[in-house]
Design brief:
Length: 152
């Protein structure tokens, strides 16, 4: 048996159903089944898995990370925010949390934050800290906002 490559995984042959799945399937996996199975390990799992996914993105610049978030339909990004030692990525229509009301009471897009973290690491940015400071379904904000603190 051989290991499944990214190329293998992306060979999709579904003439009728195509390359999309209902978002409900993703959300049940991500927000219901995973935490039920993984319990307290969910956070660590999301961090690792998100970092791996972020590394797979074909990106070379922070701006391309923003484009990749939008084209992969994680959400619709606002333009990248850049300050000294900090990047911020904001997106609407988050595939994980947009529409969840009332809000849960804490940010819930840690996997998405980890994807962004992985992508920044991939392009050689020294990441100090990644934090979701706004979250639609988690905190009732109008966007999900991921702040990436970098070494200066
Ligand atoms: Zn979100």
């Amino acid at each position: 048996m051989r290991k499944i490559s990214i190329k293998d995984a992306l060979k999709i042959n579904r003439p009728v159903l195509g390359d999309r799945i209902p978002l409900a399937f993703w959300r049940i996996l991500r927000l219901i089944a995973m935490p039920r199975v993984l319990g307290k390990k969910t956070e660590a799992f999301n961090k690792k898995v998100g970092n791996e996914i972020g590394k797979i993105f074909a990106v070379k610049t922070p701006e391309e990370i923003v484009t990749a978030i939008t084209t992969s339909q994680i959400g619709i990004c606002n333009p990248l925010e850049k300050k000294k030692g900090m990047y911020a990525i904001e997106f609407k229509e988050c595939f994980t949390c947009s529409g969840i009301t009332p809000p849960i009471g804490k940010p819930i897009c840690d996997l998405e934050a980890a994807i962004i973290e992985g992508a920044f690491k991939k392009i050689g940015v020294k990441v100090k800290k990644v934090q979701e400071t706004k979250c639609m379904g988690g905190l009732g904000d109008d966007v999900c906002r991921i702040e990436v603190e970098t070494e200066k």
